[in-house]
Amino acid sequence: MKKVYFDNAATTQIREEVILRMSEVLKSDYGNPSSSHSFGRSAKSLLENCRKEIAAHFNVSSAEIIFTSGGTEADNLILNSCVKDLGVTRIITSRIEHHAVLYTIQNLKATTNLMVDYVKLDDRGMVDYNHLETLLKDSKSKTLVSLMHVNNEIGNKVNLALVAEICKKYNALLHSDTVQSVGYYPLDFSEIPIDFTVASAHKFHGPKGVGFAFIRKNSGIRSLIRGGEQERGLRAGTEAVYAIAGMAKAIEMSYDNLKEENPYITSIKEYFIDRVLQEIPTIKFNGYCSDFENSTYKIVNILLPISSERATMLLFQLDLKGIACSKGSACQSGSTKGSHVLTEILSDENLSKPSMRFSFSSYNTKEEVDYVVDVLKEFVSS
Q1: 289 is catalytic
Q2: Mean pLDDT for each consecutive 10-residue tract of the chain (382 residues)?
Q3: Cα gap 347→329, rounded to integer Å
Q4: Do 205 and 267 reside in the same domain of the chain?
Q5: Which residue in the list 82, 167, 289, 331 is annotated as catalytic?
């Protein structure tokens, strides 16, 4: 059976070079980086070199990179500490953020005196920057704005530099979940006045279970996990040195290959859009995913013109055909809880139809696109 992996927004294939690097470290640098003997010093040196290498890609100090288990932990660390340690009493966010952000904010609102405001979105899920400025202009509270750079479901891309300028104008802190953009877009945080971002290695062809937070120097953020003094006291627990080395290698290769891989992945997405419109002309695109200026080049979210009854079988049928993608609404897999992102931008009628997310990488081909579109066409036409 043919196998096609179009779920790269969920996780990515690890590069062979990354696997090799991690294997080398597992064999040779197995000391605890907190130990004072030569084995520990060797691991510590490797750890700090990885930190410097990662920091260099964002033009920041290595002291501003804190290793975590991934984006979710990093989001939790930043949001919780902003409220509990930095005196933030108001957060402005959107209703289509990742649940790592939304659920953390909801918990903080329930357990503290935190005020939460949601910035308006247009009918395709784009942030209303004028409304964001209005919310900040009227604020008398210490405020944190939390808006993701690239939406993981529909691919909408926020103008991060503009949001940062607005926040700076009104002395608001800015946190952005950049999990879907690190490794895919150049991000110079010496130029963009942002306070906090997060990343997860498995999104850019690195290992799962490791990521990092960028925390602007002297921010006042305090640890979420108590224990030892690892990560400058901001994240207790012995560091996964081999995974961090793999992440450093993955991010190095992502940015080294960006000029080659960006246009290639873009061409795969363009070809997918052209083919699916040709074969299924009644298809619709969710969010701005068909707009290359306002969307990432690696995600397409489509709404298929079939009934809700037939929609329940779609993901199962795709899996039987060897196609990996993600569902985008409650219609598939018997789920009782649909996409909170699509709920914000689709009508009730369209929510009853199947939405599917296809996300691409440099490992994909146009031949795979042809196969997937043919399978979709056959299902829609049958």
Answers
A1: no
A2: 94 98 97 97 98 98 98 98 98 98 98 97 98 92 97 98 98 98 97 98 98 96 94 96 98 98 98 97 96 97 87 85 79 60 94 93 98 94 84
A3: 12
A4: no
A5: 331
